[in-house]
What we know:
The chain is built from ten helices and ten strands. By secondary structure, the protein is of the alpha/beta class. The strands form two sheets. The protein has an eight-stranded parallel β-sheet, covered by helices on one side. A two-stranded antiparallel ribbon has the order 1-2. Helix 3 crosses helix 4 (115-128).
Amino acid sequence: MTDNQYMTLNNGVKMPLVGFGTWTLRGEQGKQVVLEALAAGYRLIDTAHMYGNEDIVGQAVAESGIPREAIFITTKLCGTRAGYKLACQGIEESLDRLQTDYIDLLLIHEPYAEAAEMYCALTEAYRSGKVRAIGISNFNAREYLAFIENCDIIPMVNQVECHVYYRRKELQKTLETHGTKMQAWSPFTEGQKPIFHEPILQALGKEYSKTSAQIALQYLVQQGIAVIPKSSHRKRMEENLNIFDTTLTAEDIAQIHQLETGKTLFGWYDD
């Protein structure tokens, strides 16, 4: 991967702009999909306690033959580890299941009431070298601003729902003002919208010899948003990575922005 395929977090750590999502993957078949993604060139693998698949991600990374330092592993602590002691326990569990000495990015999965306590555990793990970067997930702007009032370390990432229908410019602006990068889960809307058949994306895809999916990802990446698409098909995996040879114009981006609805498709947020 070349330098333009990474973003630099507020502590200097470089994170791939395009990662591979795993939330539906389970068992041996799931492990094989992760191995296929690594073989296709993905170097960021996104998992979570909630997904119940950290073990297969760890196995795939170990079996891939790719040096551990070349792979960026993200995981998240969920509500079953809400609290300082539980979060400390959860970090050790993740390290064990992932078969690794360190996690590249560790997030709090949702804005739990105990998020501040959990973040103390993340901060300690970061300072001890068990974690290279820390952050949050699914925090809206109001929740984020309240959260960072008591943070010794500003979160490096806020991973949220973001796609062409829900661009969240104001949230990104708020995050970037304080040094936090935005990362998009559901860049293809998880089937909630006919994104691959959108006329605007199809027309631009034809112009640039790209698919609608590639244009949808490029739209976000070009505006400084990391993305975590998911696919079980090798051809689509490769297509989703192959977006860095295209530059959308300001007019192209304005066209795509016409798809904006300002509304979540998953009911996570009250923006």
